[in-house]
UniProtKB/TrEMBL annotation:
Transmembrane segments: none annotated. GO terms for molecular function: protein-disulfide reductase activity. InterPro entries: DCC1-like, DCC_oxidoreductase. Pfam families: DCC1-like. This is Thiol-disulfide oxidoreductase DCC family protein.
Amino acid sequence: MDKIILFDGECNFCDSSVQFILRREKGALYTFAALQSNAGQVLLKKYRVPLTIDSLVLLDGNRCYYKSSAALRISKNLKGGWPLLSCLLIVPKPLRDYIYNIVAKNRYKWFGKKDSCIVPPPEIKKRFL
């Protein structure tokens, strides 16, 4: 359980992103938890994630990444051309996060919101905390 992705379990875009990662990751690298879940809340406190973070978080060993840094680091471990996106890590974080924040701020308006977190299918349920 070295790499954990915390995501907004009520967000349709975030749910689609988790499904995207599951289909494209190189092996079963990631474990997932909704930010709203008990496990997610425990991890947020353990890693001292700021309360202002309400979207994507990547926990990788002892390191914690937020927003665009999390997304681009996740892309490194996907099949196809997706690892090329990680070269965007050279772009200054404030600029990357500015663009990320526009999507994050509008994600419910653009993609909708669920009433509750997803229940993963049995074949991948063990990958969710």
